User: Fold ZC12D ribonuclease from Probosciger aterrimus.
Amino acid sequence: VHQSKLDFFCKLGYGKQDICKVLENLGQEALEDDVLKELIRTGSKPQALESQAQPSALKLVPRGSSSTTPGSKWLGEGESDSSDCLRPIVIDGSNVAMSHGNKEVFSCWGIQLAVDWFRERGHTYIKVFVPLWRKEPPRQESPIADQHILEELEKQSILVYTPSRKVKGKRVVCYDDRYIVKVAYEKDGVIVSNDNYRDLQNENPEWKWFIEQRLLMYSFVSNRFMPPDDPLGRHGPTLNNFLSKKPVLPEPKWQPCPYGKKCTYGNKCKFYHPERPHQAQLSVADELRAKLNAPLSMGKEEE
Assistant:
C-alpha cells in the first residue's frame, strides 16, 4: 500500500521525501485525498509547477519576429544566407601571377592578394587553378617568387593543381584553362582572368555566352588587386550585382525638368518636377480648367 501511494504521487510530480514525511504523519492507511491536502498544506509542489515558477532564461529573438527560436540560430542562418547570395569564384592562377609579376615573374603574392580580396567580401567558394609543374624548383626561363604561398593555399583547399607529367623527358601539360571554364560554368560562378579564352569560346557555344557574361577582369595598382566597378561596360551591372546571385536593382533617378515651373508639357513631360511631387502631372489645359472651376464652385456654395 505504501509503495502504490508513493508511485501514485510521484506520477503527479511530487518528491519522494515530501510524500514519505506526509505518510509518516498521517499513517500508511490515510486516504489519497488526505495525503494530497497535507502535501498542499506543507507547501510542496509538483516538479512541473516548480519549473514554471522559476524564471526561464531569456532568449534573444530577432526584432519584428514572433518566432521563439534562439537568436544564435537566426544569426547562423543570416550568415549562411549572405554567403549563399555570392557567386563562386574561380581564379586563373597563372594569369593573375604573371600579371602581378609584370609578365616576367610568376608572382604567387598576386594570387594571395586576389584571394584575400574575395575573402574580405564574404565569398566562401574560392578556387585557384595552377599547373602542377609550378611546384618544381624555379628555373631561369620560368622564375617564381614566393613559391611557399602555393603550399599554404593548397593546405587551405583553395589551390588546385592541374595535372602534368613527363613522357620520355618531355613535359605533358593538361590545358588548365579548360579546367577553369568548366568548373566556373558548372558552379555558375565568376572567372577571374584577363584572358578572353577565345579558343574555348569557339569550342562550346554555351561556354561562349558564359565567358562573355561572367569574365571578371582586374588590375594591380601598387600591390592592390582592383577589379573594375563596371565589369561588363558602362551600361552593364555594377561590381556588387555582378558578384551576387540576387542583384539589387537601383532606384530610378529622375532628372529634374530644365524648364522648372515654366514647363508647358504637363503630363507629357518626361522630366521630374519637384514642385508637385504628390500631384498628378496635368496638361496646361486641364490645369486652367481646374483653376476656373474652383472659384465657380466656391461662388455656388456661398449662394
The longest strand covers residues 126-131.
